[in-house]
Specification:
The chain has about 775 residues and is an alpha/beta fold. Strand 2 and strand 3 form a beta hairpin. About 55% of the residues are buried.
């Protein structure tokens, strides 16, 4: 149905163009857009080299388009052979519609735009020295960055076939080494959508001028500073290698470039791929999502793929990158904070957060005003009354406009203000965002901002100052806590698959930064720093890919699904003696917030291969053509032979969508014994914690493994018994298989159709 809707949109656009032509318009004046064209495997041309394949697809296009739609002449700018089968080209709507109608074409997908999901962290990838992590992001800035320095102790990676591409602004021979082993960039789809890249602002090269890619790459596999200082001998490993694939530019990245990056990364032979990128609007279906298709191609080749969950929390159903073949990572806090205290004239104090490191305000209190009383409640640039702001601290509101917290502080500074207080949204609850402001400023919680506002309105001469505490490492408040911004489950397109999978540190993470931009990303900010502190699920994702790299080196024969299983089933949702908390509510977090917990000898693993994922797509109701986008085998998938449901996919967690208060759902799983210490015999029994209102039955009640039987099947039946109890929309529990040594934990999340809905964002002050 979704594919028919897409074809309808293409045909509608074509009809509109035809109407213009009939009225006397010229056909060669038709609008041209970029599309990804997926070609049936049997009809795809063959070529020994990528540039020859692009030529072959140009011939394919000429042969496929009749004279009535042949102009303007379409041009192929990418050919895909590994992540997908097909090409990307600039086409008119009529050309796209005609191609969509051909048996040789599986789908024609408009090029979507994506955006980045913008050290005391427990990252341990230093042993994975022969593993290459491919980072699909904004590129990399290796100049003068110790995180990417060469290491004499590292031999070249054994199986990596990639290279670094040189340009006038990226000297590959000087910047790349046995740590940074690959660097490429992809822009043709972006330029087809947004026009030529302004090279006075951005570097058309692998060089990162924004910072996001450098930060994520160094978090995943950067060399720790302490290790670099100690590297007098070869006893200290330098961690995994890095291959950077630049796809994100000023306005984001487009699907054709992202898919080409996957194609190249697979050809280069990376071991892990990570991307911290999400859609700009609605979450697309898997068959419409270039990231999901590219990731499928990578996983089929044995490459672990991790992705950020997104920064659209705390509303439920906001999680992105939810394909079951992708390891989806949420964000949580660490035990390091950067507090700043707002002190009011009446003695009240409110502790927020700030990364301001310049000249402080001092102890003396100065005038405090609310931004709404001096020209712009949101502290918009050029709208504040300089006469009323000069020398004062301004309380800035939050709102639904494209404006960063740093831009609010900048607006106050430009108006002559002495400082700023910036509130977080009400939805963010206990989280105040730390920002590298260009003037003395602090972020505060919404509830605290309300109190500060009331103080301003009830005092004739309100005054305040801000004290900057610096770096604080403490177990109070407890950590980890799920970040308020972290996107939450359930998955919109497959609620039977629990997403996100795990959580990892993603709040106030210190890592390398570009020398081409400021820590605040403001043009007016002339500061340049080798390291920066930022937050996002983008920062959480590389922590997990670093651990995945270590697992890949230790267990090179494990599938990506087995590695994901080890991460999820050995994770913990208890830290420092208590449960993981949710910063948005201050209460205990649930698996839709953090997945299976905080990310290792797992004992048992839940494995899956490409055939299992095809069964999953069949269970979703995808057509043979839609599934062929992933398998690249043409329209040969016969879903009638697949009897499994979506919930039967061999996932390391259980997500149950009840249809009524008395519904009964059964799901099936297969586990494999991978513990060499207990080989060949092991016996596991389940410990069940049933979600409230649900009876859980596990059969059989014991799993016996032997040399002859390394895998075992079991079923779980979930019986809803919600009648008569307080009705909630979700409930949670777990199944833990144990042999007395290992603890193989699977989260249970259940959802009923009726219940409370997510409240819309409350009005601000």
């Amino acid at each position: 149905m979704a594919r028919l809707a897409g074809l309808y949109c293409i045909l509608l656009a074509a009809a509109a163009v035809a109407a213009v032509a009939a009225a006397g318009g010229e056909s060669d004046a038709e609008a041209v857009s970029s599309y990804i064209v997926h070609v049936a495997h049997a009809h795809a041309p063959r070529a020994p080299r990528p540039h020859l394949l692009a030529r072959a697809y140009n011939s394919f296009l000429r042969d496929s388009l009749p004279a009535s739609v042949a102009l303007p002449e379409p041009k192929v700018f990418y050919a895909y052979a590994r992540a997908a089968t097909g090409f990307a080209a600039r086409l008119t709507a009529r050309q796209a519609a005609h191609l969509e109608s051909l048996d040789s074409v599986l789908a024609v997908v408009p090029d979507l735009t994506y955006q980045p999901h913008t050290t005391l962290t427990p990252k341990k990838s230093k042993g994975a020295t022969d593993v290459v992590i491919g980072v699909i992001d904004t590129g990399i800035y290796p100049i003068g960055r110790p995180s990417f320095a060469a290491d004499k102790c590292l031999p070249p990676p054994l199986n990596f076939r990639g290279r670094c591409v040189s340009t006038p602004s990226f000297n590959a021979s000087a910047y790349c080494n046995n740590k940074l082993v690959g660097a490429k960039f992809f822009y043709q789809g972006y330029e087809a959508r947004y026009g030529k890249i302004d090279e006075t602002v951005e570097s058309k090269s692998p060089l990162d001028t924004e910072g996001h890619g450098t930060h994520t790459a160094s978090t995943a596999a950067g060399s720790p500073l302490l290790q670099l200082r100690q590297r007098q001998s070869c006893r200290h490993g330098a961690g995994a290698r890095i291959a950077a694939y630049k796809v994100l530019w000023k306005h984001g990245g487009v699907g054709s470039d992202i898919l080409k990056a996957f194609d190249e990364a697979i050809a280069d032979g990376v071991d892990v791929i990570s991307f911290s990128i999400g859609p700009t609007g609605a979450i697309p279906e898997f068959y419409e999502d270039a990231k999901a298709i590219g990731a499928f191609g990578a996983v089929r080749e044995g490459i672990v793929v991790s992705a950020s969950a997104g920064n659209s929390g705390p509303g439920e159903g906001t999680v992105a990158n939810t394909a079951p073949w992708v390891l989806t990572v949420a964000a949580s806090t660490i035990n390091r904070r950067f507090p700043a205290t707002v002190v009011l004239g009446n003695g009240e104090t409110f502790t927020g957060a700030s990364l301001y490191a310049g000249k402080p305000l001092g102890a003396a209190k100065i005038s405090l005003v609310y931004a709404g009383d001096v020209g712009s409640a949101l502290c918009e640039a050029g709208k504040l009354n300089a006469r009323m702001v000069a020398g004062k601290i301004v309380l800035c509101d939050i709102g639904n406009i494209p404006q960063t917290l740093a831009q609010k502080g900048e607006a106050v500074k430009l108006a002559g203000g002495a400082g700023a207080i910036v509130l977080s949204s009400k939805e963010y609850g206990e989280q105040a965002m730390a920002t590298p402001h260009v003037l003395p400023a602090a972020g505060v919680k919404f509830d605290d901002a309300v109190k500060i506002y009331k103080y301003i309105k009830t005092h004739a001469y309100p005054a305040a100052t801000i004290k900057f505490i610096g770096t604080v490492v403490s177990s109070n408040p407890s950590s980890p806590r799920v970040a308020s911004f972290s996107s939450r489950g359930p998955s919109l397109h497959a609620p039977e698959i629990l997403k996100p999978d795990v959580t990892a540190p993603g709040v106030d993470i210190l890592a390398a930064w570009t020398g081409k931009g400021s820590p605040s990303s403001l043009k007016s900010d002339r500061r340049r720093v080798p390291y920066n502190i930022i937050s996002g699920t983008s920062m959480a994702c590389p922590h997990v890919r670093g651990i995945a790299a270590l697992l890949r080196q230790v267990h090179p024969d494990w599938s990506p699904a087995a590695i994901k299983s080890a991460l999820m089933t050995t994770a913990s949702d208890f830290f420092n003696g208590g449960e993981i908390k949710d910063m948005a509510t201050g209460k205990e977090a649930n698996p839709f917030d953090y997945g299976a917990g905080h990310a290792l000898n797992p004992g048992l693993v839940y494995d899956a291969d490409a055939d299992d994922y095809v069964d999953f797509l069949c269970a979703l109701g995808y057509s043979a053509k839609q599934i062929a986008l992933f398998t690249r085998l043409g329209s040969v998938t016969d879903c009638s032979k697949s009897a499994s449901s979506v919930g039967d996919h061999n996932y390391p967690a259980f997500s149950v969508a009840f249809k009524s208060d008395t519904d009964v759902v059964t799901q099936r799983r297969v586990v494999r014994n991978v513990d060499s210490n207990s080989w060949p015999r092991a016996t596991y029994v389940p410990r069940v914690t049933s979600p409230p209102g649900v009876h859980v039955t596990v059969k059989p009640s014991m799993l016996d493994f032997s040399a002859a039987k390394t895998t075992q099947k079991y079923t779980v039946t979930f019986t809803s018994q919600r009648t008569g109890i307080a009705k909630k929309k979700h409930a949670f529990g777990s199944i833990v298989w144990t042999d007395g040594v290992h603890r193989v934990a699977s989260t249970i999340a259940v959802t009923w159709p009726a219940g409370s809905t997510v409240a819309e964002m409350s009005n601000y002050i």
